[in-house]
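Hypothesis: this fold can be encoded by more than one sequence.
Test: take the structure tokens below, design a sequence, compare later.
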């Protein structure tokens, strides 16, 4: 199990450079879709929708900042 998780994590580490732009586009597309739907229906988006999109945006920002945060995180883990 641990070997599989390690392999999966290393794949994501190698895929960071090309997966991150897709994540950014997906989050932007989500916000644009919510704006379009709100405009078309003249209704505010659901609170849960905004919370989920806020979380997605937060995770996207963390992904974008990860190269800068990784040395700090490793230093904290190592003590």
């Amino acid at each position: 199990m641990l070997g599989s998780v390690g392999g999966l994590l290393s794949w994501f580490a190698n895929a960071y450079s090309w997966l991150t732009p897709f994540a950014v586009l997906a989050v932007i597309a989500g916000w644009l879709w919510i704006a379009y739907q709100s405009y078309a229906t003249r209704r505010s988006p659901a609170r849960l929708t905004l919370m989920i999109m806020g979380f997605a945006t937060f995770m996207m920002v963390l992904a974008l900042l990860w190269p800068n945060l990784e040395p700090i995180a490793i230093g904290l883990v190592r003590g």
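The two ends are 27 Å apart (CA to CA). The CA atoms of residues 6 and 12 lie 10 Å apart.
Hypothesis status: open.
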